[in-house]
Amino acid sequence: ESIRIDSATGREKEICEYLVNYLNEQNISTKYQPIDNRRGNVISEIRGKKQGPTVLLTTHVDTFYRDNNEIDEWGIDRNRLDLKLEPYEDNDFIIGRGAENAKGYMVAILAAMMALKQSDVQLHGNVIAGLVSGGIITNTPDNIGLGIGTQHLIKNGVRPDVAIVAKGGPP
User: What is the pTM of this model?
Assistant: First the structure.
């Protein structure tokens, strides 16, 4: 479902609001942290029953910035099937915009949070999911990517002891 929601860098508000509603429906304490009127972050927390470190599970929710049908300044053909908002299945793979970068990682973090909540495990410390805007590098004058959501998350009070960043890349 998340692939169908356009979350181009700089326009992540809709996907964030969807995630906040979804996680709150799962009885996981979640809030929206606005950055500006077009984007923000999702902060979800499961508090431990005992003292211990706070672990942040994080990834970005944004996908490519532009929505055109041309080859853009990065040399990316926007007509590629993996850039379409309508996902499809190919064997055991889900193909669509952001399925790998980074909505697949986002879903893994959601699954981890739901598993923790449903297991009622006795955590020693807290687990925070920080699903952030502005994680994709952009070639724009206003620098709407490059980690702006993570910076906003930390500057506004999320202070983990350790972070696990779910992000793919070259080996």
Answer: 0.86
